[in-house]
Write a structure and sequence with these properties.
Order of helices and strands: HH
Radius of gyration: 26 Å
Helix content: over 70%
Largest sheet: none
Length: 110
């Protein structure tokens, strides 16, 4: 017994939405993998730079006053880095949530 045309259209639409959801999810996961790899590389480069700066300042300090100043400067640089990194990650989290929301909205029936 053949299916009514409305049922066939609904089934085709449901299959299309499911495929769109799977492909969108795959794209989102790939983008997140790429983002994580980029962030790890950026984090390693920044931490290496901060450590090199610390070693350089440590080697150049010859008194307790110089050492205290060096610790204060390096601590401030580390805090600035953490703030910028956190801001960037929060903004990325917002974009990720918006993208996931759009993906789910596009897959829901109209």
């Amino acid at each position: 017994m053949p299916m009514p045309p409305d049922a066939v259209a609904q089934l085709a639409d449901a299959n299309r939405r499911a495929l769109d959801l799977m492909l969108g999810t795959q794209r989102l996961l790939f983008e997140q993998s790429s983002f994580v790899a980029s962030e790890l590389l950026d984090r390693a480069q920044t931490e290496t730079h901060l450590f090199a700066e610390f070693v350089s300042k440590f080697a150049g300090s010859h008194s307790v006053k110089d050492w205290a100043s060096m610790c204060r400067d390096c601590s401030q640089h580390q805090l600035d880095f953490i703030r910028r990194d956190s801001d960037r990650l929060f903004k990325h989290g917002e974009r990720l949530m918006e993208a996931a929301s759009r993906l789910v909205d596009s897959a829901s029936p109209r």
